[in-house]
Structures are given as C-alpha cells and as structure tokens.
C-alpha cells in the first residue's frame, strides 16, 4: 500500500502511465481486432501490421533524442494528435494503401509515450515503477481487443468513435503534464550523444543476448500459437481467449509484487528464475493435449513473465546515460526490436515447413539458454559497476 501511495503521489508519472494505458488499449484494439475484421485482404492487414511495428521500433531512437532535447509534454501531445489523425484516415478512407500509411502513422504517434514513461522512472524505484508501467501496458494491449470486440457488434463507426475519444482523453492528460521534468536536462550534440551511447552498448554487451533473443523467442510464437491451440489441443476460440485471459491476469497481478521483490533482493535471481520458468512452461505446453494442462501452463507463463520483466527492464535502465534518458531508451528499444522483426517470419516458416509445435519448442530452449547464461553472469555486480563508471 505504501508503494502504491508513493507512485500515485507522483502526478506526472501517473499521467504518463494513464496515457500509456490508453495508447496501448487503442493499439491493441486496432491491430488485433479492427484491422483483421475491417473487410481487408490478408496481405493488406499483414503489411499494415508490419508497417505499424516498423515505424514504432525504428522511430524510437529519433523520438528519444527529441524527448531529451525538447519537452516530453510536447512530444507526447504531438504523438497523440498524430494517432488521432491516423484513426480518422482509417475510418474515412478505407483504401488499402491509406490503411497501411495510417497504421504506420499510428505506430509513430504512440512511440513517444513509451519513451517518455521510461525516461520518468526514478533510480530508487526502478523495478517497482517498471512493474507498474508494464501492468498498464499488458492491461491495455489485452483489454483493447476484448472490449472493442463487444462494440463491433454495433458497427465500425461506434468502435472508431470510442477509440478516437480515448485518444482525445489521453491528449487532455498530456496537456496537464508539467512542462519541466524533475531532472535537469543538458542539451548535448547528437554526435556526442551517439558516441556515448555506443560506448554504453559496448559495456552492456553481456545484456545483448537477452535483449535480442528474448524478443526473438516470444515473437516466434505469434504465427503458430492459435493454430497449435486449435489443431493440437482442440480448443475453440472462446477457450483460447479464456487461456489468454488467465495468463494475462496472473501476469498483471504479479508484476508489481515481483518488481518490489527484485528491488529488494536483486535482479539476477528473478532473471534466472523467470527465463527458466518460461522455457520449462513452453516445453510442457508444446506436449500438452488437454485444456486443463494448457490452463496450468498458461498461468505459469504469466507468472514467469512477471517474474522476469521488471528485473530485466530495471537492469537495462542502469545503462541509460544520465540526462539522455529518451535517446538511451530509444536505442535499447530499437535493439530489442531486432528480435521482434525477425521472430514472426522464423516462427511461421518453421511451423509451415516442419511442425506447428517446433517454434514453441525452439522458443523454450532460447529462454532456457538465456536463464542459464545469466545464472553464470554476475549481472547485479556488473550493472552497479557500470553505473558508477
């Protein structure tokens, strides 16, 4: 309770977090529900989703520089305005190439919100605040498709109107953010910032395997999990939704407690346990044939994710240069985006050429490898050393 009160007392952080929830809610609703059900050809939906995540990932480095150089409030407000424009384009001009452009603009518009939130995280509450942010991120991404599917029964116009209104509410929140953040930012030439960041990347080379491999393993599952659940376990769509909700709820409930524990006891144990739990759960899930065991492993996956995530992002934050938080987080998110870009293609190819369960098994071994790797690397000691350097 005391931790929650401290979080809520930081009004700027709370406003950023609420805007993050709104942005991810809208993103999830559009990318996972509205576009696939908008009467478009599959290739249009595929290219639109790719364009969305490409602009979201690639723009983070540039957005991070702008967040550091200008005010976070200006960048977030501009991004939300662009996101509203993109939704209006989708609704009023449902032409394939404009849908793709609008989807890309939506990714560009939401990108500053995440960078601004990460730049607000305080040293003394790293994992706790990370857990809070990821709780809202998961709730938004998971809740958006579920809620909007209900309103789709009444037509696309109402759904688009609701999402536009939500972004408008986020825009109002952004206008209430204080212009001057709690940190004193120094304007540093971008060439010098880039050289300093390259040095940071070299120093954090032991974290690079986890940065790329974990997003690679997770994104490999996206093309095959629905078919695996249907063909191998025999689940119908409602049962799949139930399993996803069960795992997601467990992850959300555990994120903040796990963040507090990792703040108190250190990051390395939670990294090792979390990654190994993910690997073991996926291995058993790949062999599951009943809904009861599928539910069990969905719950374990949710808990494992919440065990690893706050500690992992808190560790990454130690390598973000002081007074260059936006650029630093932009660089880190761009590196992690490499795995997200490669994973779906690899997972889909493996599932098509061999067996639908093969990408799940390979992802499991990737997570086990990451867990064992960080069991042998004294991450907490190395991180603190680098932070003081």
UniProtKB/TrEMBL annotation:
GO cellular component: plasma membrane
Localization per record: Cell membrane
InterPro entries registered for this protein in UniProt: MFS, MFS_dom, MFS_trans_sf, Sugar_transport-like, Tet-R_TetA/multi-R_MdtG-like
Domain Major facilitator superfamily (MFS) profile: 1-389
Principal location: membrane
Claim: Transmembrane is one of the keywords in the record: yes
Keywords carried by this UniProt record: Membrane, Transmembrane, Transmembrane helix, Transport
Membrane topology according to the record: Multi-pass membrane protein
Transmembrane segments: 12-36, 42-67, 74-93, 99-121, 133-152, 158-177, 206-225, 240-258, 270-288, 294-315, 327-347, 353-377
GO molecular function: transmembrane transporter activity
Record flagged with keyword Transcription regulation: no
Protein name: Glycolipid permease LtaA
Organism: Insulibacter thermoxylanivorax
Gene name of the record: ltaA
């Amino acid at each position: 309770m005391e931790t929650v009160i401290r979080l809520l007392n930081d009004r700027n952080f709370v406003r950023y977090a609420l805007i993050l929830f709104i942005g991810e809610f809208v993103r999830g609703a559009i990318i996972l529900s509205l576009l696939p059900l908008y009467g478009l050809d599959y290739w249009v939906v595929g290219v639109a989703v790719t364009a969305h995540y490409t602009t979201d990932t690639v723009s983070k480095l540039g957005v991070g520089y702008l967040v550091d150089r200008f005010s976070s409030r200006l960048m977030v407000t501009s991004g939300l305005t662009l996101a509203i424009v993109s939704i209006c384009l989708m609704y009023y001009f449902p032409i394939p190439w404009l849908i793709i452009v609008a989807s890309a603009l939506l990714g560009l518009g939401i990108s500053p919100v995440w960078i601004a939130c990460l730049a607000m995280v305080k040293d003394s509450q790293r994992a706790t605040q990370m857990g809070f942010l990821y709780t809202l991120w998961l709730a938004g991404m998971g809740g958006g498709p579920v809620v909007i599917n209900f309103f789709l029964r009444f037509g696309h116009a109402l759904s688009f109107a609701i999402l536009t209104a939500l972004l408008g509410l986020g825009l109002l929140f952004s206008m209430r953010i204080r212009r001057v953040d709690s940190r004193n930012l120094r304007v540093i030439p971008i060439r010098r910032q880039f050289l300093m960041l390259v040095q940071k990347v070299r120093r954090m080379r032991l974290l690079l395997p986890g940065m790329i491999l974990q997003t690679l393993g997770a994104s490999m599952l996206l093309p095959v999990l629905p078919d695996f659940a249907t063909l191998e376990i025999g689940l119908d769509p409602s049962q799949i939704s139930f399993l996803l909700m069960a795992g997601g709820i467990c992850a959300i409930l555990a994120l903040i407690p796990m963040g507090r524990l990792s703040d108190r006891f250190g990051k390395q144990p939670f990294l090792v346990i979390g990654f190994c739990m993910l690997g073991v759960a996926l291995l058993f899930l790949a062999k599951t044939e009943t809904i009861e065991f599928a539910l069990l492993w969905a719950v374990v996956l949710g808990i494992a994710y919440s065990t690893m995530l706050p500690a992992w992002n808190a560790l990454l934050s130690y390598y973000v240069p002081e007074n260059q938080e936006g650029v630093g987080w932009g660089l880190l998110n761009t590196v992690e985006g490499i795995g997200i870009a490669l994973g779906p293609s690899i997972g889909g190819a493996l599932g098509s050429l061999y067996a639908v369960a093969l990408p799940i098994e390979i992802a499991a071994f990737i997570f086990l490898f990451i867990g064992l790797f960080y069991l042998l690397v004294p991450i907490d000691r190395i991180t603190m050393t680098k932070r003081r350097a």
